[in-house]
Target: NUDIX domain-containing protein
Amino acid sequence: MDEYVEIWDKTGKPTGDKAFKSEVHRRGWFHPTVHVWFYTRQNQVLLQKRADTKDTFPGLWDVSVAGHIHAGETPMEAVLREVEEEIGIRILPEDLNFMGRFLSEQAHPGGILDREFQYVYLTELKVPLQALKADPKEVAALELCSLLRLAEEVWGMADVGKYVPHSKPYYSAVLKALKSRP
Model:
């Protein structure tokens, strides 16, 4: 589904314009997205395997939930919507801890230039893995992974073919935040 997203400038400020996500990717315009990392009290992290039909990084393991912020939507509204759409649960705004905003610029096959300002959140997974209902158009599989294993596998991108290649500063900040969570 192609939705309208806001176009931002290279400093992360809205320009007041919007376009379909496909055009934003084709033209390499900056735009906002959300990422949500779910963790458990047993030091596990929820990972999603991206559907094989995705335009970007098909079949790779990634953040628990991610998506574009629709035009006119706040990051919080996008988080709540994306979590329900992708894994079938509802969470509350007070359950989320804002971790930071990151810039990501990635070129993909097919002429996609994805320039995102990613709003990243952490939250505890309060239901069993079996209670999640992955949207097959978005998510091929869900898995709980130990924080230690995730750190070993993404640190320095030791397993490049398995995970979405987020930047080292991004993974470093996420791993640090997950390790030091309350």
In short: The radius of gyration is 16 Å. The mean pLDDT is 94. The CA atoms of residues 11 and 19 lie 18 Å apart.
